[in-house]
What we know:
By secondary structure, this protein is of the alpha/beta class. It has ten helices and 16 strands. The protein folds into two domains: 29-139, Immunoglobulin-like, CATH 2.60.40; 180-407, Aminopeptidase (3-Layer(aba) Sandwich), CATH 3.40.630.40. A hairpin with a 2-residue loop joins β6 and β7 (100-107). Zinc ion binds next to loops.
Amino acid sequence: MLSPAFRLPATVCLFVFLIAAFARPVQALDVNSLRVGVQGDKTRLVIELSEPAKFRTFMLDGPVRLVVDLPTYNWQVKSIPTEKGRGIKQVRQGPLQPGMSRVVIDLEKPSLVHAAFVIPATNGQRHKIVIDFKPSTQSEFMKGKAKVYGNMSARTETAKPAFKAPADQPPPSSTQYFPQAKRPLIVVDAGHGGDDPGALGSQGLREKNITLAMAKDLKAKLEGTGRYRVQLTRSTDVFIRLSERVAIARRANADMFISLHADSISRPSVHGASIYTLSERASDAETEKLAARENRADAIAGLNLDTQDEDVANILVDLAMRDTMNQSKFFANNVVGIFRSNGIDTLDIAHRFAGFAVLKAPDIPSVLIETGYMSNDREAQALSTPEYRDRLATAITRSIDIYFATVK
Ligand SMILES: [Zn+2]
């Protein structure tokens, strides 16, 4: 079809041409390859990109399909893996709306996404988006299909015209993503404190002391990168109510809130880290009980919860909250991926959801990390050593790096 520009006078044509030329993103995004691997009942989809890009992924029904939305890209994929045994019927793709394109993977059976995260480009390797999905029952599928993973907003994101001369924008320095004032502010929350000891381990180990040591280690690690500002909700053994922890983050205008904990359970053999994001409904009964335990902190100190929960309940239906929750989930999945690739033990289902009071800032991506189990002697001992805490701090810092490199 002829472009309407062909019927316009030459000067307008030139103008349209210039807009078209400038409106193209400085670096066009290429989708370079799409690979599929099967491990047990899990299928892993890896999409290689020429540069970091926002994405979102979810399931659609009739036919059952996995959808991956990306900013407008050039499709450079040579071959598509659809041979039997991978659960994939066919792969389709094309523009969805201005500024956005969609990859559609038709599946053989109902499945749900279990994790979606990014692996940034490193020495010669391309930037990757990794999506894990598993077959589910039809009823699980209907319940879980709409869950969105990724860091792309629900709103349309169109590419902004790049009219500025290149000289207007200094190249980013290699050690710093942001100038001093623009460095993201991370609020790190050491769980419990004061009258509320949190979970208890053997040999007098207390969660409140371990979380405080972890928070200080993470602060030092993050500040050491030169890329972040960090504020702790507490730097001593004091009690702070849960709503105040959220309020601290909001007053400081935080870009991210991370609450650190260490769980306890009646079965001493259970061990591994898990990452929690806010949800109106708990992902399972165990998580619901955990949220109840963590939320009890205020009751322990004999304080009443204020009316904030009521307000937050209303905000929960807001789109802004949904975007924040999506970003929290995206970050949580990054943490899970980085923990696992760095040999940090996690629960089998490591990313879970529940109504944690401390995650209820409607505008700040927030996660709660249960770094391990106080009820498991070996893990409690590990958590009390600077070496293991350094591994955790390094992995969390790496996850934050990926988050801000992709989201901002
Ligand atoms: Zn705790």
